[in-house]
Amino acid sequence: MNNAFLSYNCACRYYFVVTKNPGEQFYLFALLASYLIGKIGINFQKPEEYDDPNDTIEKILQVVRENEIPVNFPANKLKQGVGEHVVYILDRLADKALAKHFTWQKPVPPEEKQEESEVINDESEINLDRVEEEMLAAYTDNSDEENLFLLDNVKVNKKEPQMTEIKINVSEEAWKLELERVLPHLKITIKNENRDWRSHLEQMKQYKSSVDSSLGVVKTQLEKLHKEISMTLDKVGNREKYLNRELENQLDDYRMLQDQLSKIKDAYKGISEGVAERNRELFRLTDRLETVKQQMEERGSSMTDGTPLVNIKKYMGKVKAEIVDMDVRIGILECILLQSKIRDEKNLETMSAAPGGRTGLAASPTNAVSLKSIEVPQALQSGEKFIKWDEDSGVGTPVTLRVDKNGFYLYWMDQNHEMDLLDIATVRDTRTGRYAKIPKDPKLRQIVTMGSQDTLEEKTVTVCCANDFVNMNFINFCCTRKEIARLWTDALMSLAYNLNQINGTTNMYLLKAYTKLILITDKTGKIPIKKYVRG
């Protein structure tokens, strides 16, 4: 681990403070963090330079939180590789690393060579004051305890010093001659101390004598100046009183004018606010006026334009003609249906009158086959709440799904009372469960999901319809429970594959057409044009 640390690039102490190279700084931060985490005792994989920064930061913060280090900033603060948050993480990891498996070693000071003291022999000046101070400090120093010589710390030198005899090679006469030669060159300087009270006393006496000598002249000048200032002040006071008496009326007038000016300013301020408010109201009224004018122009142009009225009259003529045709067709169908009912009643009477009950139509080979009658469950007739959805439009519409009592049509009505129907004879398959279609769009899937008991596939009913088995259309409905979806799937499949749907009599087809006309009529008993055109 230490060798790995030595392999990292060197960085100065301010490396993580200033942004220079974010990628390189972040990589070095990740390496240092992994090294410190390893020092803590946690197995941490060394990050690579091209790893995802988000994953690396998440791993480092996970270890930091596990070691109970508070993190009160978002993770993206570490992505730049610089800043106080980076320094904070490295500092806390270093504290954790030092707290585990680390002991401070005893410092080893380097050996210092003692330099030979140089003796300065060229001093030609002796300061007696400094000598006295040094001697006084040597005798009166209070910090003698710090300079105590400890015998315990002294090691006995086993080597005995060599005793040498000092020999004097200078005679007394030569010494005196040298002293007489050097003595004129010596300069003795005696400096006064601030603590010397005698010098202070002498200075005080000198200052007192100088003050006494100057006092007479200065006092005379000050008295003269005092008299002049007093006379000037008296003149100024008299002049001020005179001006006050002369200008008293003008001052009163000035005060009155000031009061009037303040009142006028207040009134002007109030009037200005009122004017501003009225200007804003004028702007609002102007905008409204422009809007009304524009609306009047649009309505005037629409009133003078007769094209919409002509189109309405033309379409009304077409609608009336189509209504007449529909009335004729309805009358013909009702007449044919009535004739068919009369014919069926006669056939039934003939069959009941024949011996054995097998004469007339029942005796023919075609009707010898027993066809199961169409029975529509009451649940399908009463209807059920579904959501009809379409993948192309991406819209889910709440509808009420029903089947007519004769089992001819599957029809549904939305919240706006818009009705649509499907001929059950064109149904080729009904699906639910894993074979049903479900929305691919997550938003549409959320819209069509009703209830939380079963899965969306189990609650979906897919109706496959077409005039052939190639060009298929899919209509999708979603309900609240899988039992409802299963009931409708089985019932619609049974109705679609009943032989009576494709091998019915003429009366059945007339009844089927009549049922369609009844279903597409509105509350007033009329057929909407869009239903007729689409049909």
Automatic annotation (TrEMBL):
It comes from the Eukaryota. Keywords: Cell projection, Cilium. The keyword Coiled coil does not apply. It comes from Tenebrio molitor (Yellow mealworm beetle). Its main location: other. This is PLC-beta PH domain-containing protein. SUPFAM superfamilies: PH domain-like. Gene3D superfamilies: 2.30.29.240. One of its GO terms (biological process) is intraciliary transport. GO terms for cellular component: cilium; Golgi apparatus; intraciliary transport particle B; microtubule organizing center. Belongs to the IFT57 family. InterPro entries: Intra-flagellar_transport_57, PLC-beta_PH. Signal peptide: none annotated. Residues 375-503 form the PLC-beta PH domain. It is found in: Cell projection, Cilium.
